[in-house]
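Q: I have 97 residues here and want to know how they pack in 3D. Can you give me a structure?
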Amino acid sequence: MKIATAIEKMTDFYKGNIHDIYHFLKVWAFAKNIGEAEGLDPKTQETLEMAAVVHDIVCPLCREKYGNTSGKHQEEESAPLLSLIHISEPTRLLSIS
């Protein structure tokens, strides 16, 4: 999936929550710039950017379901939501070669 498509899907997913949209875009911009400055290869750069875009995908659900966004709840709830934007094997996003 292209990063632009993921950004579009995540923007729609957040349903106008400006705070969450601004936050993930800011994190993505920082990650993109750092990766480029470090000279990452294209695949690693794409993985970094995708991880930045989806890093808080479960926060809205956790806020609603648990009243908070603790890491434990995010881990429990993330895999089903990542499948909504067609990212399989979410742990592969975080593996470092």
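Q: Anything worth noting?
A: Residues 31 and 51 are 9 Å apart (CA to CA). The two ends are 20 Å apart (CA to CA).
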